[in-house]
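re: that chain from earlier
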Amino acid sequence: MALARTRRLDADFELYVQFGRTVAIKIFAREVESITVSEPRGLGVRAVRGGRLGYAFTADLSLSGVDRVLAEAAANLWASDVDPFVHLPSAYVGPLPAIPGLWRPGVSTTRLEDKVRLALKAEENALEVSDIETVEESVYSDEEARVAIASTLGVEAESEQSFCFVYVLAHAGRDGDRQSGLGFSAGREPQELDPERAGREAAERARVLLGASPCATGSYVVVFDREVAAALLSSIVQALSADAVQKGRSAFAGRLGEVVASPLVSLSDDGLAPEGMATNAFDGEGVPQQTTVLIDGGVLRAYLHNSYTAGKATAEALSTGNSSRSSYRSLPGVGASNLVLQPGQGGLDELFARVGEGLYVESVAGLHSGVNAISGEISLGVNGRLIERGTLGRPVREVTIASDFVSLLRSVIDVAGDARWIPLHGSVCTPSVAVQGIAVSGT
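^ sequence. v structure.
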């Protein structure tokens, strides 16, 4: 209906429609602190003509609201500069990828009281662990999202997804010392969540750090916990965006085909991974998502593209299906879908045994300020435990690690086989990773 109303306007149009429902429940001191329910829904319109782009959005989906936003997008064409690479993607030839199970009924059919119980149970299990003084927050959150895209160039795509998780931030205390730990569980519907595990995980991570002190300054083999590895990979992939490369804001610019990492590093962006939180048949422009190998055995093979950056790159370049939109209110950019680091062999204990001596990093502080996605420099405060004779030793805190994207990737010496999906920094599936030659500033 809305697309038909563009015929009287002289431009190419893309319509992005979003319907959603989110629930967030926060527990503190065994009581409900807050419940937030929202239903974002609206229409975003891109108009393109002669290299100019006009954009407008509205939450008014009545006929008059649709006519108004179409007219605003067309009028905004004149406020933009001409850019020869601005265009809308053409319709995809053939069916979109079929990915069953992205939407499950449990998010909508589970009662609010039962969702509250999940957050309460996660907190309860954390508080049952010795030395746990408080749980700063125990949170249940879910989302149902329905998106449809249609354009005058023939793009037609729609999807629906559901996702939920619980996470717990626990504090342990002993003799004036206080340490924190985070635990989580994620799934497509509440029945898949394990709040007991999330609570215990948060508590144990906090408890084992009690009595921590700085370690000696030096060069260490560092084993990054999966959650920390996910955070670092999410930062690194920003520099693998074609948009960052084309703007000269990437340490990987001009390095396609070069060795930028250890042969043990194979990193992909997999928009079709069934268990990924960012999995979908299509991206923010209606282009099919795909699996893009970014780094293959240490060699840089590709950047992430949307339609604009692909057109700007070369005549032969195509979108990798990585147009990213946070909502109908935003223009599409370039972003990762699901990052997947190829796992190695054995569990975490086996990785410690192979490393012998080093530092196990369980958490980091200052991620947003300590990682520069443009220069690639890394400087982070970390907590963890020493690795001594192949096993975990005393806890460590108040130390800083320093490196950069390329040095970090090139210095990977071992990878465990304990890959896990991490929803805390986008959508990342990564194992624990051992990196040599990391500068650690302690005592």
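The longest helix spans residues 112-127.
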